[in-house]
Write a structure and sequence with these properties.
alpha/beta, eight-stranded mixed sheet, two-stranded antiparallel sheet, 23 helices, 16 strands
Length: 635
Amino acid sequence: SSCGPMPKRRGPQCDVAAFDSILDGVRSIYMTKVRPLEEQSLVQHFHYPLLADCDFEARPMVLLVGQYSVGKTSFIRYLLESDFPGMHVGPEPTTDRFQAIMYGAAARELPGNALASNPDTPFYELSRCFGNAFLSKFSGCEVPSLFARGCTLIDTPGVLSGRKQTEDRLYSYEDVVRWFAPRADLILLMFDAHKVDISDEFKRVIEVLQGHDDKVRVVMNKADSLSPEELLRVNSALSWSLSRILRSPESRRVYVGSFWERPLRHGNFLNPLFESEAVALLTDLAAVPRNCTVGRINALVARTRRVRVQALLLQHLRAEMPKVGSKDRKQRELIAGIEDVFYAVMKRHNLPAGDFPDVSKFRHTLATSEACRDFAKFKKLDPRSLDALEAILSTDVAQLMERFDAIPGGGLAPAATEASPSPSVHAGGAPVAVPPMDPWAAASPAAAQAKEAAAASTPTPADPWSHPPPGGTDPWSTQSLGAALPESEPNRRGAGGGGGAGSAVLDGLFGVGSAGAAQSRSPSCAGPAPAAPAAPAPSAAWVVSATEKARYDSIFQQMAPDGGRASGAKVAPVLRRSGLPNDALKAIWSLCDVGGAGSLDADWFSVAMHLAMRSKKGEPLPQVLPPEYVPPSAR
């Protein structure tokens, strides 16, 4: 039987530039406080490469890894909604190179040597790490895709079996994946539903991804070609195989579906499940810029803690070396007893055991690395460097998170839902192909023109809440707090009723525990409209504190004000988050919209927020605005 119409969801839109200032802060802290100590402590020899400016300037990166013919390239085409230069699709191992797909004004292919020679790209270190043998199998391209505007996609060759993987390739596949893994913000581990067996070569590649479990997403592609019974068995087999490689006490989430531009096969009653899985995966991809920012902050903390341990370990080894006598014998003794060194440093500096590296790998590097030939030549540790690391963990990261939390919606605007066939829906027995959902897609120009025409044909009253609009919906009418916010409001709630990060910020501000929070205990304020405020003395202190003003200004700017003013349609959803009664909200608007312009500037918006906060605490709203409430700019 065919599936009935299912709601089609436009993927969440992203403000990719919303986090630039936070990433600049992360870069500044790393470059001034962390990287100098990483260089001194030889972190690049023991753990991971050092970061450069280009690693922070680059767009978020999504790495796709899998065996050949699992649909990696087709999935990228599905996301971009178009072909891209250098693309090859086929049942045989067609993709024979690593390819970076980036945003550009026009489609063009870029040779790998050119990309790796440009210090402004995140691929600059590839030439130094792998040389021409790899660069001849690396390329890039630019495409004018809205999806590519949000992140860079890395397509990889399929993992082969036997000597074709280990010998015929002139570079180490595992080492290249190891280089990309810490730089990627999301790693898609893709499987074909018809061949979920994991070869020894693929197992080694997956093991390289250990330590990046929070980034890994497992995708089972081409699932619509299996019967439900087969799919159940295949999914169980895949989960069991992965549990033996990516060891974790929790069962790993597997996205099941068919991720390409063609419609799903007709007659499978699991098609609605596949559609919901596609929406979930695309939503996860749309959150990459936001998660990238969180990941960069987390990586800063992880690197800070790791380099602190590394510096103290090398300092201890340096101090244990004799001034005279056989240094080689003492060095061999220290390497053999490295567990005792770990324990001594942990106890002396009161460090958690989880911050220490793997003992066997650390011992191997000490014994084989040319940089560790003489422990006595390790550089002396400056105590001020450790103080700087402590300041990062105690102060700097907290300030970055405060700025991050001040971005309403976390840079995300949940998807709108509209009743239309999904890509797999069959209308009248014929497949209906629908373009793939683009998490960064904006409204179409035709829709925007229709919206502007409708707005121009409808007179706007001075008070947008004094009369209901033609549709019969009053912005202050009783309704669920999960109602959709205006199209221009960044703090939108999802069509499914779930609140985004911006909703959580406002909920915390107003003290609302959930979208279904109880109404405020503020008394009813129905009655005649408030009178104009009394003229205050120019020197009177404003009731809105500087801290409040900064917080409210941040919210005001996220509403995308027009000419420095936010309309009632934009202000209403924000104030409605307070849960105040409708008559109280109308009274607040009347008190602040003094000129009857139907909009508020940043100062009057701060007054409105201040009144809402006081009303939430049970204080009555004034009938006449007190003089100290009038912003200095309006006096």
